[in-house]
From TrEMBL:
Alcohol dehydrogenase iron-type/glycerol dehydrogenase GldA domain sequence ranges: 15-154
SUPFAM superfamilies with a match to the protein in the record: Dehydroquinate synthase-like (SSF56796)
InterPro entries: ADH_Fe/GldA, ADH_Fe_C, Alcohol_dehydrogenase_Fe, MAR
Protein name: Maleylacetate reductase
Similarity remark: Belongs to the iron-containing alcohol dehydrogenase family.
Residue intervals of the Fe-containing alcohol dehydrogenase-like C-terminal domain: 167-349
Source species, domain of life: Bacteria
CDD domains named in the record: MAR (cd08177)
Organism in which the protein naturally occurs: Herbiconiux aconitum
Keywords: NAD, Oxidoreductase
């Protein structure tokens, strides 16, 4: 009998996903009915026009507006109290990862089901990962209660997203795909999802840039963002996510832009250690190398360039590297020393390729 080297355990998370451009209102109404939970809490920023359009369908008993990045603990507490006071039966989040994240914080302690309506490509809606920030430290965890029961995707809801956020959020989604290639629980299924996700995202982002008011590119990006996030949920956090988690939670850097900037440095660091995966990622990028493909895409999209443009100080690099080091997964394709993290952070801080780190400090 032939013995093969393919051995893995894979867990697929159970979730209902509804795709339909221009159909969010009817799909949401159907889901609220199906879940039999008419007392809805809407979690969405006040300025979110998608929420304003969809609120009449939901007729929420509470609309919680106070949405902030990385879910501050005091905001989560207030939202939970508001849900309890209004005897809420279902939480509907409309917005980016921050709105989804707050809905997850409510579900974590109340067990309430979530219907998520994403308006960015952040992908939090497809994961069972929660995050809450207290005293400048972001705590994260995995819990089945925070996985939205249903995701309602409608590409038309992303039309108002400013171009810079389309680009940063789209690259954040590509980062889910790339990091899933070598994350601790990566397997052939997460890798297949991630590679198709990367392919769809880069097509989608190029199409959105060329035709910002058309829906096709946005549909492709949402589809790719979902696949990459599903891959990430199963594969877990790799080196890239551990770095960005510390930069966001301890140094207050904006989520999507930080991912967009750090990704090329981590890909340049890890890629050569896994040549087969690097070649498959290169094919997904449609380029001779994955590193080159990502750089070309970033140039075309005029992606965020350097962490120093977002408030990260050069003097913070050493402390950040020290916080990240103990969190680096043992499964990373190559060993990571503190000096490697300093090199990665220095390149990301300066916006230069990893192998030009000496120039970066010039
Ligand atoms: P965000 O939700 O903070 O949105 C960024 C900005 O875009 C906000 O000002 C928001 O109001 C605005 N916006 C969103 N959609 C819009 C639209 N369609 N039109 C106009 N403006 C719009 O940012 P994000 O990058 O989507 O999410 C970041 C958060 O999500 C972070 O806290 C991150 O940790 C979390 N996240 C969690 C996971 C997970 O699996 N748990 C995955 C990805 C991201």
């Amino acid at each position: 009998m032939e013995i093969t080297a393919v051995r893995f355990e894979h867990e697929t998370l159970g979730q209902r996903v509804i795709f339909g451009s221009g159909a969010a209102a009817e799909n949401l109404a159907r889901e609220v009915e199906r879940l039999g939970a008419p007392r809805v809490m809407l979690v969405a920023g006040e300025s979110n026009t998608a929420a304003a359009d969809l609120a009449p369908v939901l007729r929420p008993v509470v609309w919680f507006h106070d949405v902030a990045q990385h879910v501050p603990a005091d905001v989560a507490d207030r939202a939970r109290r508001a849900a309890a006071d209004a005897q809420v039966e279902l939480v509907v989040s409309i917005g980016g990862g921050s709105a989804t994240g707050l809905a997850k914080a409510i579900a974590l302690t109340t067990g309430l089901p979530i219907v998520a309506v994403p308006t960015t490509f952040a992908g939090s809606e497809a994961t069972n990962v929660w995050g809450i920030t207290e005293s400048s430290r972001k705590l994260t965890g995995v819990d089945a209660r925070v996985l939205p029961a249903t995701v309602v995707y409608d590409a038309a809801l992303t039309l108002g997203l400013p171009r810079e956020l389309v680009v940063a959020s789209g690259l954040n989604a590509i980062a889910h795909g790339v990091d899933s290639l070598w994350a601790p629980r990566a397997d052939p299924i997460t890798q297949a999802l991630a590679l198709e996700g990367i392919r769809a995202l880069q097509d989608g982002l190029r199409a959105i840039t060329a035709h910002p008011t058309a829906l096709e590119g946005r549909e492709r990006a949402l589809y790719g963002g979902y696949l990459s996030a599903v891959a990430f949920a199963s594969a877990g956090s790799g080196l890239h996510h551990k770095i960005c988690h510390v930069l966001g939670g301890s140094f207050g850097l904006p989520h999507a832009q930080t991912h967009a900037i750090v990704l090329p440095t981590v890909l340049a660091f890890n890629g050569p250690a896994v040549p087969d995966l690097e070649a498959r990622a290169a094919a997904a990028f449609g380029a001779p190398t994955a590193d080159g493909g990502l750089r070309e895409l970033r140039d075309e999209l005029e992606a965020p360039r350097a962490l120093r443009d977002y408030g990260f100080a050069e003097s913070d690099i050493d402390e950040a590297a020290a916080i990240i080091l103990p969190q680096v997964p043992d499964s990373n394709p190559r060993p990571v020393a503190k000096s490697d993290l300093v090199a990665i952070l220095t390149a990301a801080w300066a916006g230069t390729p990893l192998d030009q780190k000496e120039d970066a400090r010039a």
